Amino acid sequence: MPEIEHMNNEVLNRVPAEFRPLLNLDHLTTWTLDRQRVHNDDHSEYEAARAMFQAVLRSQHVEGDGRWAARRRARKVEKHLNRLVKGSREAARGAEGLRTAYADHVRTIQALPGQRAAKAQAKANRRDQVNTFATKSLNKTIGAMAARPDSDTEEGETAGQDAVKASGGRTVRGVNDLFDRKGA
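and the corresponding structure tokens:
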């Protein structure tokens, strides 16, 4: 029994090494074109066999047959040949699909670092734009508040310790004073 397990492990370890060159797009292209050629050759052979079977089987009339009896009998054999024809056609398409899908995959993998770098740069640019806009907005707000005329001069210096002088010389006691609102 250990010999069987050893043989199975050898086969499993050997299979990826045989197909590893296919990860190179040039090797894969050559391999898939060979597969397509083989499947297309099979396809034409299957079609020729189907045509021969159709001609022979559909012409075998037995005494007492109805109008379509020979054709119905022939279809029981022809359907298997049709499967072979369809299978070889699909296998050729599959080989072509494998090649194009892998080529797309390789291009996608090669383009990913550049796309990610561009995306990160765009994100950083958006953050910078938001920060610049916020800074401009805050500077405009501070400038507008600093340029207001001083309306609280009568309470100015005598108001107490919780009053703060704004840059325009105005006394500001709280948030409501910044927006010319009177507190409750």
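(Above: one complete record from the training split.) Helices lie at 2-19, 25-58, 69-146, 175-178.
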